[in-house]
Amino acid sequence: MNYWLMKSEPDDVGIDDLQRMGSVGWYGVRNYQARNFMRDQMQLGDGVLFYHSSCPEPGVAGLAEVSKLAYPDPTQFDPESKYFDPKSTVEAPRWQQVDVRFVAKTRLLALDELRRYSELAGMTILKRGNRLSITPVTPAEWSFIKALLT
DNA sequence: GCCAACGTTGGC
DNA sequence: GCCAACGTTGGC
To answer: In chain A, where are the structural domains located?
Structure first.
C-alpha cells in the first residue's frame, strides 16, 4: 500500500468532475518518472491526494484511490488528441495510465497552508522546482494530511 | 504573461 | 555521450 499526490488541472478534471464521474483514467502523463510510478509501484487501493494545479487556488481538493492498475493510455494513439505520440505503437505502447476512483471531496488544503507545517516540509511537491505530476507521499505525510482534512 | 526549473531532443 | 537549444510545468 502506497500513497500518492496526483496533480490535475481543475479546468480539465477537477474534484467535482471526479465525484460526478466516479472514476477516471489518468490520461496524459508524458513524463517517464511519473509513468514509472504508475506502472511499477501503484497498487489497487493506494491512497491519492487529489491536487488542483495551474489554477487560482492550487492545493489538495480531495481524496481518491487507485482503482485499476496501469494500462496503455489511449490518447497516445489518437491523432486528434494533444497527447498523441507518433512514436508510440499499440504493440509497444510508451505511456500508461491508471484509473483513480473518487473517495471524498475535502476542504481546499491550499499550497501556502501545506508550506506552513514542518511535518510536511519534506514533501516532494513543496520542493523548489518540482514539476512532477505524480509524487509519492509518505505514510506520515498521508496521516498528517488526512487528520487536517477530517 | 512571466520566468525559474527541469526534462527531452538532436547535432556532433 | 555531451550539451546547447528548446519545450513544458506551474506558481505567482
So the answer is: 3-71+97-149
DSSP A99: E
Report chain A (150 residues): mean pLDDT per 10 consecutive residues: 96 96 96 95 98 96 98 93 89 94 97 95 91 96 95
- Can you read off the three cell numbers belonging to residue A136? 509519492
Contact flag, residue A82 CB and nucleic strand C, below 7 A: no
What top-level class would CATH report for the domain A3-71+97-149?
alpha beta
Place of cell 508524458: A30
Of A89, A85, A107, A109, residue with least CA distance to A31: A85
Q: Which residues are bridge partners to A51 per DSSP?
A: A7, A60
Assess whether A55 (CB) lies less than 7 A from strand C: yes
